[in-house]
Specification:
Layout lengths: L2 E5 L3 E2 L5 E8 L8 E6 L6 E6 L6 E3 L7 E6 L4 E6 L8 E7 L8 E5 L2
Parallel strand pairs: 2-10
Antiparallel strand pairs: 1-3, 3-8, 4-5, 4-9, 5-6, 7-8, 9-10
Amino acid sequence: QVKLVESGGALVQPGESLKLSCVASGFTFNWYAMNWFRQAPGKEREFVAQISGSGSNKNYASSVKGRFTISRDNAKNTVYLQMNSLKLEDTAVYYCKNEIGNWGQGTQVTVSS
């Protein structure tokens, strides 16, 4: 059974940093690209970042490029999202997802002054 468990969400002030984690099980982790998405209240779920199975290729949404970094540790079956210079508009529930369509439950990130 596939399981994706996000953690690390918190209430932070603008300009601060936060690191999210997603621990995966139930599939061969290193075979698959992993993604982060987010969804703010009243808005559509949007793509944030993607990393290839090996970790060698990454891409980002324009809104987070230069501020967020996606990474993975295949020995720990974990994907990370390092978020720097957080803005009010980064407030959302953040979800991890594998390339075969499995989603985690999400972790809340709130940026507030």
